[in-house]
Specification:
This protein is mainly alpha-helical. The chain contains five helices and no strands.
Length: 118
C-alpha cells in the first residue's frame, strides 16, 4: 500500500466538518480542515516530484479553493468519496506546478508524471 493510500485511510471523513465548512467565516472549522488534510496533499505533491516549496504551494492552491467550494458541496459517499475528490483536485494543482516548471525551464511537449496516480 502506498503512503498516500495509507494516509488517506487514516483520515476519517467527518461529515460534520464538511457541513461546518459551508460557513467560510467559521475559522475554527477552516483551521480544522486544513490541519486534517494538508499533510496528505503535501505528501502526494512531494511524491509527484515537487520540491518542498512547490508542495506547499499545491497545499495552498488546493485547500483554499476547496474551502470556498464547500458552500455548495453535498457529500454523498455513494456517489463520490470526499478524499477522492480532494485528491483529484490535488492532482490538477500538481499538474499546474509541473507546467510552471516546464515553462520556467523552456521545456516543450508533454511531461508524463507517473507518480500522480495514487
Amino acid at each position: 500500500m502506498n503512503m498516500a493510500k495509507a494516509q488517506l485511510d487514516l483520515i476519517p471523513t467527518r461529515q460534520s466538518l464538511l457541513s461546518r465548512l459551508r460557513d467560510l467565516d467559521d475559522q475554527e472549522s477552516c483551521s480544522d480542515f486544513f490541519h486534517s488534510y494538508w499533510r496528505l496533499i503535501y505528501e502526494v505533491a512531494l511524491k509527484a516530484g515537487l520540491s518542498d516549496a512547490e508542495a506547499h504551494e499545491v497545499v495552498q492552491e488546493t485547500v483554499i479553493p476547496v474551502a470556498k467550494q464547500m458552500s455548495g458541496f453535498r457529500y454523498d459517499p455513494a456517489r463520490v468519496k470526499f478524499k477522492g475528490w480532494l485528491l483529484h483536485i490535488t492532482r490538477h494543482r500538481i499538474a499546474d506546478q509541473v507546467r510552471k516548471q516546464m515553462e520556467a525551464s523552456g521545456a516543450s511537449g508533454c511531461h508524463p508524471v507517473e507518480t500522480l496516480q495514487t
